[in-house]
Amino acid sequence: MSVSDNSALRGIYCDKNFTFCNNTTFGLGGKCKGAYYPRSIKEAALIFENLKNCDEEFLVLGAGSDILASDDGFNGYVIHTKYLKNISVCGNKVISESGVSVRELLKFCIDNSLSGAEFLAGIPATIGGLTYMNGGAMGTSIADIIASVTIFDGKLKNFAKNLCEFGNKHSIMRNINCIILKVELCLNKADGKNIKDNIARTLKLRSGQPKGKSCGCVFKNPEGRSAGEIIDGCGLKGKSVGDAFVSSEHANFIINKGSRASDVYNLIKLVKETVYSKTGINLCEEVVYIGDFNDSFS
Q1: pTM attached to this predicted model
Q2: Share of the chain above pLDDT 90, in %
Q3: From 167's CA, which of 175, 188, 284, 288 has a CA 20 to 30 Å away?
Q4: Domains of the chain, earliest start first
């Protein structure tokens, strides 16, 4: 059955003009077949289940901050979580739907005098995306404050933290075809002013990060090492391919100044090959690729 023939999806708006260049922090990438924007957990599960039953390729997207999408786009559909915004509190636990942004979460934490998430300040991501990637900053990841994760993979499931297989930019959700619906965070009661001060300190520490269109850090840090320092040691700061270049401020950032995802992709491959040839270290990407890329340099 095709998506157009599926009566369950027929009444749900599908944006056929969706482009990844307008929905990722790199500002790159082509179109997809269409994007659905569920406005409730029930609707998100409905869309997921019916796209799966139609044997269509599809993916879940939040803020698009760790994404490099192909210039040719994606031959499938997007489920975008931007309207999954419900957030509530029970004691010292925050229950956040996956589309809640870091900024929205921290405002909620200030209003409810809950501390522990301030290390996320300044990260342009949703709670669902951070959980999927086990994202974080300054040696702390979101897994450190997660109590449980609710997903849908055809059935509604709740994973306690110990079942999420959190690791270096990894969670079990990366291994299964699912949509993250809700995340339960375990925080601590604190004074609102102290929380604001902690956020301000975190933002000050992040203020020196490179400006421009990027996905943040491109590569995972090898055990006990800094990927940025390794890349810098190979003389790659400022290296460019087309309109993409390695930041002179932080070598693990690639900045896009153009309109071709292929430039960024080819620069990532060049950095990997150079680092391996000079050090024997095989850097692993943190960035997630969407669509097809040509491995030859242009």
Answers
A1: 0.94
A2: 90
A3: 188
A4: 7-80 (3.30.43.10), 87-206 (3.30.465.10), 227-290 (3.90.78.10)
